[in-house]
Amino acid sequence: MDHSDFHKLVTGQLVYWQDLLKLRDWDIKVDYWPHDALENAVAKMKFSRNQKTATIALRVPEDIPPVERDWPDNEAVDYDMSLVHELIHLKCVELESKVEWAEEQLSNHLTRALVKLYRDGRNIEQVPVEGEPGQSAAIVGHHTGHYL
Predict the structure, then answer these.
(1) Predicted local confidence at residue 145, as pLDDT
(2) What is the mean pLDDT of the chain?
(3) Taking 60 as the threshold, does the pLDDT of residue 26 lie above it?
């Protein structure tokens, strides 16, 4: 799958999650960064509360393996989890630094719950990326709108 096809799938999922989480008033873009630029994170987000704009930086698919942290099974290669996690941070913007740890925990729990509901409703399982480190990731289409 080439980058533009992959990007179309990711942005389709972004629209779905924005609608579900009532974030359509935000102008949200997706960008792809190498692993090193994300400082060993799976994704990062930059936003402007005043302008209601955000950019979610996801890992370049070729950079998915290896992950240096103890993530739950397949979470590091799951773009739905990354998108939902970052979008939930936008829902918590008003809390910002006041309760950063609680926000992170809330984002983790809600992400898992929402993605599970989405997949259960569509009988979708998350398909792991296969391949050797440094090799292009094998992106597997497993139902309309799901890409990993």
Answers:
(1) 40
(2) 75
(3) yes
Q: Which residue has the higher pLDDT, 37 or 134?
A: 37
Assigned domain for 143 exists:
no
Question: Is 36 inside a domain boundary?
Answer: yes
Domain containing 74 equals: 3-122
- In percent, how much of the chain has pLDDT > 90? 21
**Quick check: is 103 in a domain?**
yes
| 146 located within any domain | no
Report DSSP letters for the chain, one per residue: --HHHHHHHHHHHHHHHHHHTT-TTSEEEEEEE-GGGGTT-SEEEEEETTTTEEEEEEE-GGG-S---S--STTGGG-HHHHHHHHHHHHHTGGGGGGGHHHHHHHHHHHHHHHHHHHHHHHT--PPPP-S-TTSPP-----STT---
Our count of domains for the chain comes to: 1
